[in-house]
Amino acid sequence: MRETGLPDQFRDCHPLGIGCLSRVWQKIRQFLNPTLDHDIRTILAEELSTYIRRMSRIRVIATLLLAAMALYAGFALRQKDWLDALPVLALYAALAFSIELLLRFGRGLWFCRFAAVIVDIPLLFWGAHASIPANPFPQVAACFAIAGFAVFILLLPVEERPLTILFASLEGVLLSVLALHSAGVQFPKWFPSVVFMFLVVGLSALLVRNRAIRIAEQYAIERRATEHLGRFFSPNLTEFITSHGGLAEVSGRKRITVLFSDIRGFTTLSEKLDAGEVVALLNRYFEAMVKVIFRHGGTLDKFIGDGIMAYFGAPLAQADQARRAILCGLDMLAALSEVNSALGAKQKLAIGIGIHTGEVILGEVGSPDHKDFTAIGDTVNLAARIESLTKEKKVGILVSEFSWKECKADFNFKSLGRVTVRGKKKAVKVFTVSRGKAK
Asked: DSSP letter at 132?
C-alpha cells in the first residue's frame, strides 16, 4: 500500500470519503445512543425520577400563578390579551395537576419525561398565539414566548439519549417562527436569528447533559468504591477512608489488634441441616456479629467459612484498640446468646474467640481481577492459633499477653500460663477475660 503521509485515522479512508463518512456516522450513532454501564444508567434513572417530580411541583405552582395573574389582569385591569389567554392557562394548570397526580400514584413517569415537549412548549405557544391579536405589543409577547421555549429546553431532564433535546430544539424553531408570524414579523427577517438562538440553546442543553453523564460516571466509580469499602468497614470508617484518598493512603505496616472467631462443631451441625438452612443460619449469625464489630469501630477483614477475622486500630488509629477488641469479643458472646434464643433449641451455636496485638502489613491483596483489603503477617497467624486453643481450654475467649498489657486494668483477666502454639517456637502467655476491673 502506498504511503500517503496522512494520520493513521485517515489512511484507510476511501478516495471519495466513504471511510470518513462511515466514521462520522459511527460517532453520530454513539452520540445518539451512548454505551453506558448499568450503574450509570441506574444513577441517571434515579436522578431523572427525582428531577421530574421536582419539576412537576414547580409546574403546578407556576401554572397556578399564571392563571391567577390572567384572572387579575383580565377582570380587574380589563386587559383583553390576558382574557384571551385564560382558557389556555386554565387547561395548562389542569394538565399540570394531572401530571402531578400521575406521579403521586406512581404512574406516568415515561410520559412526564416528555412533558416539556408535549405540554409546556405547545401550551406556551398556544397561550401566546391566543393573546397576540389583542396585545398592544405583539412582538414583545412573541419574544417572551420564544424565551420561554429556550428556558424549557435548558430545563429538560438529563437522559441517556439526547433525542428529546434535539426534538425540543426543532419544535422551538418551528413554534418561534409561527409566533413571530402571528405578531406580524416577516418570515425571512428573524428566521436566521431564531435558528441560531435555538442552535445555541440546544448545544448548551447537550453540553449540560454530557457534563451530567460525566458526573454520573464519576459518582458511579465513587459509589462502587464506597460499596466495596462497606464490605469491610463501618460507615464512619468508610467515610474516613474515602475522604482521605482511598485504601492506598491507609495501607502499610500497622500495629493492630486482630480478633478471630469460629463456630465450634459447625461441620457436624451443618450435616444435620439442609443447604438453605445452613446458609440462613450463617447469615443470621454473621449479621449479628458484624453489627457488634462495627459498633466498636472494628474492621471486618473477611469471613473464613464459618469464621470471622476482624481487627482494630486501622485504618483509623485507635489508642484503645486492644480494649475495643476485648469489649467486642465479650459483646459477641452476649450477642450469640440472643442469636441462640432466636434459633431455638435445635440449633444452638458456640464460638471461640482469640485476640492478639502486633504488627501487620495492610493492603489490597489478590489478582488484577479481584482484590481484598486485608491484614497479613505473623500477628494474624498467632491470633488464629490462639482462637483454636479456646476449645482445648474450654473457654469462650482467649487474649494474648500483648493485648493484655495494653488494657490489663480495664478487665478481669485470669492467666492460663504459657502455651505452645503451632508454628511458634516460643510459648505464648494467654488469658481468659471477663467484665469488671482487675483484682
From this structure: G
Whole-structure pTM value: 0.57
Per-domain boundaries in the chain: 16-226, 235-434
Pick the closest to residue 269 from 338, 346, 344, 342 (CA basis). 346
What are the pLDDT digits (tens) for 340-381? 888 776 678 899 999 999 999 988 787 877 777 788 999 999
Residue type at 40 in one-letter notation = I
Distance between CA atoms of 37 and 27, rounded to whole angstroms?
A: 18
Radius of gyration of the chain (CA): 35
DSSP state of 108: -
d(CA 202, CA 103) in angstroms, rounded, equals 27
- The count of other CB atoms within 10 Å of the CB of residue 87 is 13
Cβ-proximal residues to 289 (8 Å cutoff; 6+ apart), any chain: 261, 308, 332, 335, 336
Residue 134 burial (CB count, 10 A): 15
Give the tens place of pLDDT for each residue, 15-62.
545 566 677 667 666 666 666 777 777 777 888 888 889 999 999 999
> Tell me, what DSSP letter sits at residue 344?
-
Amino acid at the residue 105: F
Nearest to 312 by CA among 324, 327, 329: 324
Cell (9 digits) for 273:
441441616
**Separation between Cα atoms, residue 177 and residue 88, nearest integer Å:** 20
Cell match 471511510: residue? 19
Distances (CA, A) of 433 to 249, 303, 326: 35, 24, 8
Which CATH architecture fits 235-434? Answer: 2-Layer Sandwich (3.30)
Whether the Cβ atoms of residue 99 and residue 59 lie closer than 8 Å to each other: yes
**What does the H/E/C string look like for 396-416?**
CEEEEHHHHHHHCCCCEEEEE
How, if at all, do strands 412-419 and 307-312 pair? unpaired
pLDDT in tens, 257-274: 999 999 998 888 888 888
Please provide the DSSP assignment of 74-103 as one string.
IIIS--HHHHHHHHHHHHHHHHHHHHHHHH
Count of residues for the chain?
Answer: 439
CA atoms of 233 and 310, how far apart (whole Å): 10
Amino acid at site 123: L
